[in-house]
Amino acid sequence: MSSAAVAASPAPARAAGLGRRDRGELACLGALLALACAPLAGLLVRVWTKGGIVTGGDGFLVTDPLQYLNWLRQAGGHLAVANLYDLAPSGHDFVHPGVLVSGLLHRLGLGVVASYDVWKPVAVVALFVAVRRYSHRFLATAAERRTAIVLALFACSPISALVGWGGLGTEHTKFNFDFVGGELWPGTWLWGYLFTALAVAALPLGLLAYERGRGGGRRRALAGAAVAGAAASWLQPWQGATFALVLVGAEAIALARSAAGAPGPPSRERGGGAGWAHRAGRQRAARAIADVLPVLAATALPLVYYWVLSRTDAAWELASRANAFPRWPWYVTVLGLAPLGLPALLAYRRPVPDFGAVALRIWPLAALAIFYQPVGTFPFHAFQGLGVPLAVLAVQGVKPLRLPATAIALALIVLIVPGTAYRVDQLRAAVNAGRQPFFLTAGERDALRWVERQPGRGGVLAPVYSGLLIPAYTGRATWVGAGSWTPDFRRREQATEDLFGGRLDPAAAAALVRRSGARFVFSDCHGRADIRATLASVTYPPRSFGCATAWRVRAR
Asked: CA nearest 277: which of 263, 256, 257?
């Protein structure tokens, strides 16, 4: 195909059999749903055998799902949310579309956990549909498509398992490889980070829509691309930024290739060839700008919103500083991407026939550029979704090798089974360690309900373990909670551990309670000391709920 055809980029033909059911693909959808529900099922089995109540956190870090529960509870009443991991006043200035929908469901009477988990089947279907359509766009045979779908949805870095189980390197090395493996694996997004899965799904759907609409195609498709870009940015900014960079890079390459291979002018214009070529180039550039600019504008709006929040809201400024981790070493990036990246590199040697193929090849490079550029917070999330283009490119890259089916099956086993087993083992260890609030006792639930139902406003002083739960389960702020959102977190964490560990005398305990500004004190069931006498001078008589205790603080 000529380079002029690249510039025109006609809408891709509908892949043969796209509308027909494929049992292998449906099996992938079922397996993805099972993967998404597996942690919750495991937690429920544990509750059934050992008692307790699942809090709603079903991922490696319970902090983030509980933050979503906190946010949606606020959104149901205020639309915008504030920072409830600090007792200082905080403005309601953060609006999130997914949180808002869940908040309205909660306002209508659905439980707080169920209001968030309604997104789980939506995220599973959206991710599957996006990967399926993207694979059908670039791969010709059913076997190739199935292979790409399986890789994109289930590949889990065997390098992380090798380093972790093999004890290779230091603990920090293990952390880095666990980190990159977790960012790349779709299971991580479906275990507590459902909005991430939706953002990742929006990116390939947006690219396909833009390809259909550009160059004189359907304007409705360009509108769909704009919606997809805005959704990706609002749900997860790194995916929105990657989407925008892919579009800019692909259009720039398409224009350059079109100019290099543009045909000469018609015969009646002979003698003015340079001028004709210049005018044709300007027309192509104008058309490309007219296509891409509205999509980029829609994609950029949420990114600008997040940037303004990080500069004007104290809580978001704090979160930006708290999450300013150094990037992992370059060799972690190389080895982390190698299982899919090496076969994907082979595809870069093949012809690039159209705009979509250009965008496919730019996507991994754009994600790496977003990761390494110096602006923004927590760039590691740029790796989320990278498995989608790498899987398609990997299948394209190894196609000329004509590998036997047994070799492909063995490769899939290596790329999926060890890494997945390692991640399951990590989640099991996190649950068994007991350092995160995966569960509540019946007494803790009743104590939280008592705090929630007390009249009037006022925050809560509690250990960090319970501080993560209090905003979601009571609607009240807590003096110490999520580390990214609590000012002077380490000092506050130590102060509360000293209080609930019984290491403060009555005067120091009373001073801490007064200094915090809390109206309630909450002690959970995790080995806390009996501090009823310690707090007697500053609180009303406590209310006991089994092993949990709650106090109301006396007015000054």
From this structure: 263
